[in-house]
Specification:
The protein has 225 residues and is of the alpha/beta class. 27% of the residues lie in helices and 28% in strands. It has helices at 24-35, 69-74, 85-91, 133-142, 176-180, 200-205, 207-220; strands at residues 16-20, 51-53, 59-63, 80-84, 96-101, 107-114, 127-130, 148-151, 167-172, 183-192, 194-199. The strands form 2 sheets. A 6-stranded mixed β-sheet has the order 2-3-1-4-11-5. The structure holds phosphoribosyl ATP and magnesium ion (MG). Phosphoribosyl ATP (PRT) binds at residues 21, 23-25, 65-67, 84, 86-87, 105, 107, 154, 170-177, 192.
């Protein structure tokens, strides 16, 4: 009688798909990946490819927009990814596990405004320009403050200078972009760092491979304080 395949017959696994964004996230994640032997065969700054294998064939890096990383991982377009907590909070985290704070790409999500406008001079319902409306809404609602949100996709610092908004909510690192545009930080909303995210269903189906990567990264990263 011919042998029939059984569940414990090893199958050839396809590489795990690992979503990363170019720039800060890729640059800060690369040393951690390299230290666990996951070396991209090409660098996205010099390659136009959006799928880059690791030299050991264990993973395939998918190069996506920073704000698209949670969407790829949630819907199984990638099994895992690295994303800023700012972007992750805005997405909501549905369908995702967040096993590690990688302690990289750190910054602060802040309320900022014109240095020459005192808080008492602000309107009762100030207009807030931001790429992070969900986080901003939650922050102001927590202290019972009424605000009007203006969704932008970048260059938030410009909005108060041209009367589009009274304040902004944006990520701040050194503070030099705020300063260069006559703005100053007002309130801290959250400390931000990049997180490893894993598709919830994939963590069950490909548990051994994914938990290997999680524990290897855990051993080489330094979570933010
Ligand atoms: O560019 P794209 O729209 O595709 O996405 P993105 O802007 O979210 O991506 P990217 O690569 O700029 O940022 C990825 C992640 O890095 C963010 O989600 C944050 O978690 C983290 N990060 C850390 C930062 C910064 N530091 C940072 N300084 N993200 C953005 N900035 C910007 C900020 O928006 C502001 O314009 O840098 C400017 C402020 O910097 P300072 O040093 O002048 O304060
Ligand atoms: Mg950017």
């Amino acid at each position: 009688m011919a042998a029939t395949p059984t569940a414990d017959v090893p199958t050839t696994m396809t590489p795990l798909r690992f979503a990363l964004s170019k720039g800060r996230i890729f640059d800060d994640t690369l040393p951690l990946l390299e230290s666990i032997g996951l070396v991209p065969a090409e660098h996205p700054s010099t390659s136009r490819k959006l799928r880059i294998p690791s030299t050991d064939g264990r993973v395939e890096f998918l190069i996506v927009r920073a704000s698209d990383v949670p969407t790829y991982v949630q819907h199984g377009g990638a099994e895992l990814g690295v994303v800023g907590k700012d972007v992750l909070s805005e997405h909501g985290g549905e369908g995702l596990l967040e096993p590690l704070d990688l302690g990289i790409a750190t910054c602060r999500l802040m309320v900022a405004g014109p240095a020459d406008v005192a808080p008492s001079e602000l309107p009762a319902r100030p207009r807030i320009a931001t790429k992070f409306p969900a986080s901003a809404r939650k922050h102001f609602a927590a202290s019972g403050r009424q605000v009007e949100l203006v969704k932008l996709y970048g260059s938030m610092e410009l909005a108060p200078l041209v009367g589009l908004a009274d304040l902004i909510v944006d990520v701040v690192d050194t503070g030099s972009t705020l300063k260069a545009n006559g703005l100053e930080p007002i309130e801290l909303i959250a400390k931000i760092s990049a997180r490893l995210v894993v598709n919830r269903a994939a963590m069950k189906v490909r548990h051994a491979e994914l938990s290997d990567i999680v524990s290897q990264l855990d051993a080489v990263c330094t979570p933010s304080a």
